[in-house]
Amino acid sequence: MAENSDEDVQERLKAALWFAVGKMVDEETLRRNRNVTPQFIGALTEMVWTQIENVALDLESFSRHAGRSTITTDDVLLLARRNGDLHSIIKDFVDQEKAAKAKGKSKR
């Protein structure tokens, strides 16, 4: 029964992803006065789903390699290491969040 539940969750997640990708594509096609087929949206959704699965597996592997059962921002930064711009954006965001959290603690 748990397997069915996992499959149901996966299907609901895929449906939500399809909806989100479709919405973004619709907004962009309207902005650019273009058209796309439902097959394009389906293929793009499958590609994004596969990328998400790969990222999740990599993050789990990094965390496990570090002897942790929880994925941290360090794992995300390690994943982004080959894309300098993305790594910078994530690093800046993490640093800002840490600074805001430290500032919040110092006010108490």
TrEMBL record:
Alphabetical keyword list: DNA damage, DNA repair, DNA-binding
SUPFAM superfamilies, per the entry: Histone-fold (SSF47113)
One Gene Ontology term of the molecular function aspect: chromatin binding
Gene3D superfamilies: Histone, subunit A
GO biological process terms held by the UniProt record: DNA repair; replication fork processing; resolution of meiotic recombination intermediates
Keyword Transmembrane: no
Family: Belongs to the TAF9 family. CENP-S/MHF1 subfamily.
Annotated protein name in UniProt: Centromere protein S
